[in-house]
Structure formats: structure tokens, C-alpha cells
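Form P-L/3: holo structure prediction, ligand flavin-adenine dinucleotide.
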Amino acid sequence: MDKFEIIVVGAGAAGLLAAGTAANRGTKVLLLEKMFRPGRKLRITGKGRCNLTNLTRIDDFLSHVNNPDFLRPAFEQFFAQELIDFFHSIQIKTKTERGRRVFPQSDKAQDIVDGLHRWVNKSGVMLKKDVRVNKLFVKEGRISGVRLNNGKLYFADKIILCTGGASYPATGSTGDGYKLSKTLGHTITNTRPALVPIAVKNDLSNELDRLLLKNVNVKVFRRNEILSEKFGDMQFLKQSISGPIILSLSREFGKALHLGEHLEFSLDLKPALSELKLTNRFQREVEKNRRLDVTGLLRKLLPQKMVATFISRLKFDSLKLVDQLSNDEIKSIILLLKDFRLVASGLKDFDEAIITSGGVSLDEVNPETMESKKIKNLYFAGELLDLDADTGGYNLQIAFSTGRLAAMAATKKS
Ligand SMILES: Cc1cc2nc3c(=O)[nH]c(=O)nc-3n(C[C@H](O)[C@H](O)[C@H](O)COP(=O)(O)OP(=O)(O)OC[C@H]3O[C@@H](n4cnc5c(N)ncnc54)[C@H](O)[C@@H]3O)c2cc1C
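OUTPUT (holo model):
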């Protein structure tokens, strides 16, 4: 009979750290991974650079997380500096960038995956790849083993479930952990895509696809009420918007957007200029370029790819010469530059979501140990739990800290 002290299911960020930690504490560990390569998602994090964590103070860090109280015990044991020290100990140097975001010095997420993989091997973990856990066994209220898709059974004293969320399913995270946990009586709180592009109802020309707008101000409206406002970079995609501030807003308004609530996004394309200053600037451009038509002048004020879409919203002929514009027409251009509206039609799908919001209910997990309150010796870690956070290295730190805490608790000698 194949019997281990601990089985870790899923070799992503949480699972790799959990398995290595447990094995280094003298435990016989089996790590089971569904994909042919472990850490598929880790490899694409931070646009291939892997934003490991964030060196902000713990209280600020926790303000970026949905369930901060639950995470405190995990962070008290193993937080950003401990994570960085750990990577240094396995020969991976790090660097800190704008916003206190930490990356590997090489700028290569693959180095993080390789480093963790080497460490896990060296620690004596038995890794089995290309195998999917499709059943968990419980005997007399205690977890006892797993069944794989090939029918093979493995037994263990303890199991740490680290199967991730349901986003970017091509990386192996297809929500299996939700189903497995549910069969054992765990509650799964509403799961939905988060940190995900927002689909818009307006017709966006193909030309806009991938256009990055730097330093814009975006306000979110529900009818006439401003619900939120963010300044930074955003990006147009096909019939959707994305980029740092939009992803963050997708998380803030995830529930409303998921339910199809009517929200509008107002882009201020010239946030450094008040309406009055922008009007003066526009008048100066008109003085200098009297023989230009409206299209020509807008090319001086907007990214080229945006001009056609902008013009399609004007209610007058864009071939008109600028010195023939009426005051009302000038005003309508200024208003559009300051308030370019997009109507949200919802969130894009899990395929495009950086994380999954929702997951195994935290009411049923002990935050001091990550152990299930329902099934003895079953532990959870990472995105599978009802934990999610903003972009900036917060989500990986959650996976690493909870993975480590689960392993420490599961290997504690009583
Ligand atoms: C494009 C992208 C960029 C990101 N960039 C960042 C970033 O820069 N910084 C940051 O903090 N966060 C980032 N994230 C989020 C971060 O990657 C996740 O929050 C984190 O990987 C979650 O770790 P995890 O170990 O819980 O799950 P995962 O990394 O998803 O790992 C789960 C593992 O379990 C395996 N598995 C699933 N089901 C089974 C099963 N039945 N049997 C066996 N194995 C199974 C999967 O194949 C997978 O390998 C990014 C996410 C995406 C999609």
C-alpha cells in the first residue's frame, strides 16, 4: 500500500512551498500535480517576471485583501521579508520596484519555478506529475487518502489541498478543489472571476485593441453617483477594458458587475487639465492650426488609435475646419475629452481572470493551522480558499504564507 505522512495536492505556489516545508521537517511527502509541469501559473505571473510579494507594512498589505483577519496568523509566522529570505536561501536574488513590489532580480518567473522545483526535489518530496486527484477519502471523520484519474490510490495521515482557483484554466487550475471540498461537506462561497477585464456595451473599433492609455483618471458611476475613482494606466482590448486601474476596479465592483448592474466608466483623458485650462489649450491649438480639420487637430491631442472612435461620438462633421467650430462644438469636444463614457456589460470570463474570488468558506477553516474544522487532518492553502487581493504581489504572498502555515501545522509533533 502506498502510504505517506502527508500528501500535498497541486504543485503551484502554495503546494510547492507546503511540500518542501513539510519534507524539510522530516516528513514523508507525496506531491501530486495534474499538469506535466508544476508551477504553470507561477511561470506566467507578473507578465513573466513574477511579482512575488509586496514589502508594504502588514496593515497596509491586509487592506488589499478581502478577508484580512483570517490571514493575520499566517502572516505573523511567514510574511514578505521571510519569503524574500527564503528565496535568498535557495539562491534566488530579488529586487524591489515601484509600489514596493518584489521581483526576482533576473526578471524571470521561470527562475522562481525552477528554484522551488529544485528545493522541493532536494527536500526529498516525491513528486508525481500528470496525475489528477479526483476523489478524497475520509475514514471516521479523518482524511485518509486520494484516488487519481488513473485509478491509483494513495493514503496519508494528512492531506494539504492546494489546487488553486478556477482562473486561467489552461494552467491546471480548473476549480477541482472546490468540487473535492464540497464532496466532503465544505461550503464554497460564490466563485467569480476577479482582477479581470471588464466587458463594455459600446462598440469599440478594432483599432483600439491593445491601446494602452497612461495616466488617465477613471470614475465609476451608478446613475449620477460617483462610486470610485482611480488614476493610472488602463488598456483597451476587444470589446473590453483592462490594465492596472481597471483590474483593480473589477475587483472592487466584481459582485455588481457579475450581477449585471448598470455601471458606467468615465475616462478623463486629460486629467492634468481642468475643463477651463483644456479649453484654453484647445483654443491655442486652433489659433496655431487654423487650416486643420477636426480630425487633424484631435491627432495632436489623442493617441492616433483613439481618434476614429472619439470622432464617431461627435455630433458634427469631423472634416470641418477647426476655425469654423462653434463654441458649442468646442465644448462638446472638451466634454468628451474629460468624460469619455463606457457602459459596462459585465466581467470577462475565468479564462482572462488573474484570480478567482470566493472559494472554501473561511468559517470552516482554522486560521491558526489552515486545518478543516469539518474533516480532521485535511488542510487548505492558497487561492482555493475564499481569499483574494489586489494586484501587486499580494496574491502570491497569500499562497506562500498559507502553504507554509498548513505544512508547519501538519508536521507539528504533538
Ligand atoms: C496571468 C496571471 C498573472 C499573475 N500575476 C501575479 C503576480 O505577479 N503576483 C501575484 O501575487 N499574483 C499573481 N497572480 C495570481 C497568482 O498566480 C495566484 O494567486 C497563485 O498562483 C495561487 O497559487 P495556488 O498555489 O493557490 O494555485 P495555483 O498556482 O493555481 O496552483 C494550483 C495547482 O494545482 C494543480 N491542480 C489543480 N487541480 C488538481 C487536481 N485535481 N489534482 C492535482 N493537481 C491539481 C494545478 O495544476 C496547479 O498546478 C497571477 C495570476 C495570473 C493568472
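COMMENT: The longest strand covers residues 225-237.
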